[in-house]
Amino acid sequence: MIDVKLPHDIAQTLVSAPAYATPALFDAYRWMRANNPLGVAEPEGFDPFWVVTKHADILEISRNNALYLSGQRGTTLMNKGGEGRARAITGTPHLVRSLVQMDEPDHMKYRLLTQAWFMPANVKKREGDIRALAQQAVADFAALPGQCDFVKDVALHYPLRVVMNVLGVPEVDFPRMLRLTQELFGATDPDTKRFQDALTNEQYLQLLLAVLQDFTDYFEAITTDRRANPRDDLATLLANAEIDGAPLPPFERTGYFTIIATAGHDTTSSSTAAAMWALATVPGLLERVRADLTLVPALIEEAIRWATPVKTFMRSASADTELRGRQIKANDWLMLCYASGNRDEEVFPNPDAFDIDRKPNRQLAFGNGAHLCLGQHLARLEMRILYEELLPRLKRVELAGEPKLSESFFVSGLKALPITFELS
């Protein structure tokens, strides 16, 4: 594999969490797309893996779920020994087993349990409730003294409230869900307090297991409650759901709860904040969108592309195959680099620019194929509604400091966006 091997520094960048908070990541992606768009990374401490950086290749792999599996090996990047430790603990290559980690026939059976909840027609029925939450978020924003951290003061909390209301988590537990989400997705970020001093692999694993145990304990209590006291929420559906005539196994049920409770708001928070970052920095953008609210969906779509909160997912080949003229062997591991696909020059002219005039905007942030994000319609709706409520009042916004990104090679985005602003 000498001819396909990526340079050592590029391979190390791909597994360096701090790089995901700097331009170094996009520099590496740009080099790979131009010079070795499907190469093999052999970073220290990790099994080798193919790095998929082109939009077309990511699409091809995403649409061929029989050939490129999600459940056979780790779906998120793990260092050497990580998969073995996961198998010793759970009997699978995963510490969590949700839709993300499933192949057929399980994947579709589990997806169909909640798919109707997230279809556009059903999501639209909740527009009134979501708009009320957006109006409250704008009111809270307006009460701030003309300066804030938009991530911590707005973007983290509004999507959290939306998805927790859909799920049926009581408001008193929202802070707990936010903390656990940050510890699960931002486990490598130095600002995630639980992990600050846990730098060894074993410490990291044990503390990650502690987070997952917190989720398990919480949602087992929710399950018990909803079986005794059913309501019109997703928690009741999952607590009482059956697969093949039997209740969901606890491991899979916890995985289902966890993916909705975490990915359902964390990724939306990142894109929500990215839209504000653009409004604060792209000349004329605020005035243009404020004058024509029909441009809000384009603003949201471009913010999703620009942020690409889920940076990578892993797949493994089920059989020998060929892609881009390269020979991929059965059980080979592949990293789908969505943030690279969303900056592919062949699909997005001037890809590093924030441009709401991209038509069509073929962003890959929600994935594609069978694993296309279940909550994509809810995410778009809640972001659109927030900015429809906010923009008519937002007269001015500017950066008041350096934006900061979280350090994670799985899910990452803005963790600080200091701004000054003026509302009418």
Structural overview:
- It is built from 17 helices and 14 strands.
- It has 424 residues and is α+β, with helices and mostly antiparallel strands.
- It has a single domain, classed as Cytochrome P450 (Cytochrome p450, Orthogonal Bundle), CATH 1.10.630.10.
- The strands form 5 sheets. The chain has a 5-stranded mixed beta sheet, with helices on both faces.
- α15 crosses α17.
- The N and C termini lie far apart (61 Å).
- Mean pLDDT is 92; it is low at 193-199.
Kindly report the average pLDDT value. 92
Rg from Cα: 21 Å
The low-pLDDT segments are: 193-199
How many structural domains does the protein architecture include?
A: 1
Q: Write the CATH architecture name.
A: Orthogonal Bundle
Biggest sheet character: 5 strands, mixed
> In which range does the helix fraction lie?
40-55%
Number of helices: 17
Number of strands: 14
Strand content: 5-15%
CATH homology superfamily name? Cytochrome P450
The spatial strand order of the largest sheet comes to: 1-2-10-7-3
**For the record, what CATH class applies?**
Mainly Alpha
N- to C-terminal distance: 61 Å
Which tags fit this structure?
5-stranded mixed sheet, 17 helices, 3-stranded antiparallel sheet, 48% helix, 424 residues, Cytochrome p450, single chain, alpha+beta
